[in-house]
Specification:
Radius of gyration of chain A: 21 Å
Helix content of chain A: 55-70%
Number of helices of chain A: 10
Shape of chain B: elongated
Helix content of chain B: 10-25%
CATH superfamily of chain A: Formate dehydrogenase/DMSO reductase domain
Structural class of chain A: mainly alpha
Distance between the termini of chain B: 97 Å
Strand content of chain A: under 5%
Strand content of chain B: 15-25%
Number of domains of chain A: 1
CATH class of chain A: Mainly Alpha
CATH architecture of chain A: Up-down Bundle
Structural class of chain B: alpha+beta
Oligomer: heterodimer
CATH topology of chain B: Alpha-Beta Plaits
Distance between the termini of chain A: 10 Å
Number of strands of chain A: 1
Amino acid sequence: MHPAPSVILFTSLSGLGFGLLAWLGIGLPLVFGWSAFWYFFVGFGLAVGGLLASTFHLGNPQRALKAFRQWRSSWLSREGILAVISLLVMAIYAIGLIFLNSNWQIIGILGAVGSLATIFTTSMIYAQMKTVPRWNTGFTPVLFLLYSIAGGAIVAGNSLIASALLVILLVVQMVSWNLGGKSFSNAGHTIETATGLGFLGKVRQLESPHSGSNYLLKEMVFVVGRKHATKLRAISIVLFGVLPLALLMLAPFWMFSVPLATISHIIGLFASRWLFFAEAEHVVGLYYDKR
Amino acid sequence: MTSLPKSTDRRLGLLIDLDTCVGCHACVISCKEWNTSNYGAPLSDMDAYGEQPVGTFLNRVHTYEIKEPEAPAQIVHFPKSCLHCQDAPCVTVCPTGASYKRSEDGIVLVNEADCIGCGLCAWACPYGAREMDAEAGVMKKCTLCVDRIYNENIPEEDREPACVRTCPAGARHFGDFDDPNSNVSLMSAARGGIELMKEQGTKPTNRYLPPRPKSDIESQSQIDMPIPFLEPVSGAKGFIGWLDKALEKI
């Protein structure tokens, strides 16, 4: 799948933002006044910035409001609605903390649950795709949620929790990368099942239907991105996991630990999301004898 | 509403005969011609006369080679367009309700006024039946020529999809798969119509008739049609024979 920058920014940043908001919602850390203002500023900035980025790849963004209508059937619609509700609930909670010095705990917890539910719906946009076997697994929501709460914990300064979550995230991410390689063949899709001609013998493409490229090949048969997959995995692991972990564990009281860990984590997260798209193979490639 | 209808009154679709298709791409051109000038946004081309032309098409013809280890290769031309699935995953993922399946005839359509161009429906389709138009930013797909098949302003013989109407080989057929006595149902039953990528569970309406088995000169005794009917050039009889021999001797 084509790793569009807008979608990588959207899933990474809004995930991080909602993760931070979730921690703030349950009072970790419990902050008031100006301090609270800055925490929520970062949380809202990341979440809203990410959501705005997601509209950049739309063909007709001026009609984006129509996307709130089909929550009964569409995960994308559910995500939009939950994102707005969660942001509104968190805004009420933030007003209490910043301006009224009061901690409306129930609202905070509701906002936190909403934030996590938003991340879950984002992940389901991808996990629901039967056409992309690598995404169509329970790993997708688990990883999206882990990235979100681990990253959120780093930014929130919950160093111990963040370290524990990063360890879990590292393990789950590596297991998922390992299993992901077999997901396509395990799903049983081949050029023979795609064409239904397997009973005649081995099928291969003789002539492409068009001499140039097209939307399908550009969007869904993104072969180039996988060339450096192994290197990118290593870079990603070091940046999103190992380096932040080292900073938080070895220099917990150094004033630059949290900012450096955050920056490193975000860059590693971008690399990981790039791979999430670039390594994902869509079954339509079979018709072109490509994956 | 992007939920799928529980059932449809009819199941209109295409039956494509892979034995007959000659791969001329006339259906591709005819489809583009009709659909760029009628329903919805035109099917745009980018860099049409340049180095790397790309364009939106609703129907494309692949060509495959099929081979058994010890047998000659077989070539199959393979037209592919929307299969108007009963369980269309492209419909349920749509966040705006632009993508829908009609309950009266099962045709899957896009309401372009509601399409935000997110591309999710194209991701959900295993067949590559949907292409985002680069100019209009909306999703384009086969409409089964919904603006021809019910169109009383055109002659009756034209009231079928443009690709079917134009096919010079008669490889494309249009009809109602819900009616067991329709042309498409009968042909599909007689020759074992294929469902593409069945394991995706989309329940496609369109069917493909498999190529008929080819005769094989390698394994089916030596058949060489002209040889037994050819008289040897030499060894002529009668006057010509005498002349031949006499002239040889000189």
